[in-house]
Amino acid sequence: MILIYTEELNPRIEYISRLIFSTILQNEVSFTTKSSEFLKSELPKLNYSYEKFVDEFYIKPHRFLHCKALIQPNIQPVWYNGEKYFFESSKDSDLPFDPLSASFYLVTRYEEYLEFEKGKYNRFPAKESILEKYGLLKKPVVNIWARLLGEKLKERYPEIQIPYPKFHFLSTIDVDNAWAFSNKGFWRTMGALAKAAGKGNFSEVNQRTKVLRGTENDPYDTFRFLDETFKGNEDKVLFFFLLGDYKRFDKNISWRNRHFQKLIRETSEKYAVGIHPSYSSSKKKGKKKLITELDRLKKITGYEVQKSRQHFLRLKFPRTYRRLIKAGILEDYTMGYASQTGFRAGICTPFFFYDVKREAGTSLKIIPFQIMDVTLRHYLNLKPPEAIEEIETLMQEVKKVGGTFSTIWHNETVNDEGEWKGYREVFEKMNKLGFELSDV
Length: 440
Fold this sequence. Notes:
Number of strands: 15
Distance between the termini: 26 Å
Strand order of the largest sheet: 9-8-7-15-14
């Protein structure tokens, strides 16, 4: 048990303290606002207040955690042992920066509540992130800071036990298009053939014809390969299915298609399955669409839907997460960038969403991801060997501090064809290493 003293215990301080000490460092934590109780206690303790008493472990808080207005705090870099931090503390503190304030700013995505220059698909761009500006996006800094704080406390209180960090690996697949050519229906198929012929793309016409005749496999039908890759590790795999109505950014097979339903049912018998809320459902008036898509998945699988990842990684704070909570979703897997690899919230440990506007924690668990296939190939333009190196580097960052290394791939990107030539090997090596490094 670690005792924390603060003059005023507010929801921000309680939330981030429990995340750091209980969730990451796996130590119980209690709080007091009475200095006399704090001074008498023989527990390992942290004075997180504006007054230092004697020789207790002390961190002077940055005023950010006591601020009630939704405004951008003044953030200045703080150097300590050759590393860059932010949210300065004081000279008489045991750390020159406030890890609680800095961590809260990152994991709540506070900066995404403020005005920012919107990127593609109205998403918060990685370049606007303080972690990108400080060159820290590739580090799980919240986990690093937590372990630094734990080590410093242990120096003062040797009785504190901090468990060895465990590494978890999660391989996830988004099924945006189950098949490239098959099972699309007569009119959609004829229209696609005519369009390809009109553009003079006769190689596509030839491939479509062979697939429809059954003489060639559909290029997106990689599900047997995925089963072989995941064999024996099915508990570390998660599939998300797009079940929105056909629109410009939502082009999957109709949810009514019997072949598609069969694929979803068979997948749900082997792996955990979640909803991939459509692009349309993420719009301002898309709340009803989300409920409809959830009902479709439940009707197909027979199970309540508890897991979700936004199509195109569209996140709007706090609207998206409030909608998911209201719809009964318990876990979301959207937290990451399309344009960059790394740690969007600065953390690799699953955590509960904190609604900054309501100043309250919630029941929605956020599982961040660090790698996406499209990021590696399209945004970063990495060749397969470079992609493998990037994955291994980030995986080792998570391994060092403990946490979950989560990835996003799509069924069509592991076909080893066209622009994705060589990326099937990247996928295989990533999963092999992830499964090998897993502690459970």
